[in-house]
Structures are given as structure tokens and as C-alpha cells.
Amino acid sequence: MRRSLLALALVLAGCSTGPSSHALLKAELVRLQTPTSTAPLGAAGIVGGTPASLYNWSSNLTITSYRGPVGMITLTGAGQDVIVYECTQPSSDNCLVELNGPALQNLIGTTPVTVPPTTYDRVRMIYCKPPETGYHAYLSASAAIGGSTWYTKTLGNLSATGPAEPVQLSHQGCVKDYAIFPPLVVTDTITVPIQLRLYFDVREVGYAALGDPSTNQLFTSHFGCTPVATLGVTPYVCDSYPDVAAVSGTVLPTEERYLVNGGALIGLFFDSSDRFVGGFLRRHLDDGVNWNPHFFPDSYVDVLSANGDGSYRLHQVSGANFPAFRRASHSGTATEVTGNAFAYTAVRLP
């Protein structure tokens, strides 16, 4: 969830580094080794060499740089709030991390910290620095749209002339809380440092759209998009700041991806014991193809619980509920945040 400045102040006031003689824990922020550019998953927008006249957009970005802030990371559980990472700079723009950095490496400068023995069930990502109420990400990327390659530009958002430059993406809110599946149990008998890795995937983390009225429906002025001079005329770029899955130890999680109704990506992470450890939802757009997944895939998965018949209840934070989701290509019925039901088809991707 996204939290206000007041909530952030309360979080910061309640945090401590805990007693000095219990267990050591090192948190790491790690990008999974996945492509940052993939082939379109749906129908192509170019037919016979003629650019599509509608829906000139794409989430198939080739990312060269993606910087976002990490102000603080805390663990929460049983009345304990422990800071495991903190950027001491004065603003979020001074705490930027290259999220497209080397895969499977720690992208933030963390050292082991002492943590009290308890059961930690949530990790909190804090992006802002007080008194900020929002933050910026900076994306350098290109995309093939309407028969040409378009590049992000610091001024102008998109241009047919390369190379890609960092474009500023504005986000409201400062904090996201993620459940730790299963909860991390720390005892005072642990004698070796615990490694807690926060994994994420940057594939299709954003999308680009040309200036056309048909693309207006995807512009969101309140978070994650570049400003536009004239909606329906000026190109724009948006992103969904990547969500993390917390895994203890160094064994990599596996990721399963599903394309839902041709317009939503669901990513699910599982540990080496096939236990669910986190998941995300993102918008998927193919050039020239209308977008209508019947719900807004703009947050993360907070529940994936087995029903006992091979299906799972999958719940999106502040969003859709899939009561019988399956870990294979399938069709079913889900409900959006308003409670309205919709039919869906999920295709499991390679």
C-alpha cells in the first residue's frame, strides 16, 4: 500500500535498531536475472509494414537505465520495528539506486545489523525522505511503436532520435509494506548472519505511448507518469515502481508469469520449497492492440493461498480477487475492487 507523510513520520518515530547482542541480519536488494526486453506477447501492431492507426503504445521496453530511490528498509514483527538499511542523504533524489544494475548482486550498500529475536512478518520499503510526500524514478528506455523506435528524452518524453535519456516519472506516496512469506523467525541462538534478499524483476516495469486520443485511457497523472503538454497529442511514459519479494538465504526464487486477458501481467515468486514468497501485477500493452483486462493491475499480490483442489485464492492489494487461480493456463471468473465480476483467461508464459 501507499502511505501518507503522517504515516511515514509515525513509522520513522517507531523504528529502532534493537538490542546489540542478538542476531545479525543483512538485507540485500537484488534484481533477478531476467531480460529487460522481451518479444511482444500479443498481436503485433504493424501489419504489412503499415503502422497501426490506433493504440500506439508498448510495454516491451528496452531499458538502459532505471534509477529509483530507496530511503529506508525496515522489518516489522511482534512489536519490533528494525531499520536494516537507511540512506542518510537529505532527499529521495539523493538516494537513487540503479535498479537495472547487475543481476543477482546487492544493489544497495548494506552491512549486517543486530536484530532482536522475534518473528518478522513484514518488510517495509520507504522511498521518501521527510517532509517529502512523493518521489521520482528516472527511466532511460526505448520501444518499437508505430513502425519506429522511440526513445525517452529528458525534455519531450519521447523522440524518434536516440539515444535514450532519463525521463522523470513522478510518484505519490512514500511507503509500501510487503508480507514476508513464510515469516522470518529470528532466535538468539542464531550465530551466523542472516541474509534476507529482496528480489524484483524489471521486465515491463513501464510503458510508452504516442500522442493519440486512443492512448489517453492509460495516462495516470497521480503517479508514475511523465507530465504531458496536451493529453492526446504529447507522448508520455509511465512506470510501476517494482515490488519486492523477501527470501531468506541465498537460494534463488523461481518466477512464474501469467498474461491475463491480454493486458495484465501477474508475476509470482516461489522459494526452493515451492512456497509463495511474493508477487506483482503490471500493465501489458502490445502496439496496435486495445487494452481492456477488465481490472487495473497496478499493485502487488498479498495473498496466494491454496484451496485444496489445485487452485489458489489470489488477491491483489486494493484490487482484484481471483478465487480459483491456477498455476497453468486456464480461464475463470474474478472480481474487481468494486465487487463486479469479470471473466478472464490466464496464459502461463515461458
Could you outline the blueprint of secondary structure elements for this entry?
Blueprint (H helix, E strand, L loop, with lengths): L4 H10 L8 E9 L14 E2 L2 E2 L5 E2 L3 E8 L2 E6 L2 E7 L9 E3 L14 E3 L2 E9 L7 E12 L2 E6 L3 E3 L7 E6 L2 E12 L7 E7 L5 E4 L26 E4 L5 E4 L5 E7 L3 E7 L5 E8 L17 E6 L5 E5 L4 E5 L4 E6 L5 E8 L2
Parallel strand pairs: 1-16
Antiparallel strand pairs: 1-9, 2-3, 4-17, 5-8, 5-11, 6-7, 6-10, 10-15, 11-12, 11-14, 12-13, 16-19, 17-18, 20-21, 20-27, 21-22, 23-24, 24-25, 26-27
Question: What attributes does this structure have?
Answer:
6-stranded antiparallel beta sheet; single chain; mainly beta; 3% helix; 27 strands; 5-stranded antiparallel beta sheet; 1 helix; 350 residues
Quick structural gist:
By secondary structure, the chain is mainly β. The chain has a domain at 5-248. It is 3% helix and 46% strand.
Describe the structure.
The protein has one helix and 27 strands. It has 350 residues and is an all-beta fold. The protein has a domain at 5-248. Strands 5, 8, 11, 12, 13 and 14 form a six-stranded antiparallel beta sheet that branches. Strands 22-21-20-27-26 form a five-stranded antiparallel beta sheet, with no helix packed on it. It has a four-stranded mixed beta sheet with strand order 9-1-16-19, with no helix packed on it. A hairpin with a 2-residue loop joins β11 (134-145) and β12 (148-153). The longest helix has 10 residues, at 5-14. Residues 1-20 and 43-51 have low confidence and may be disordered.
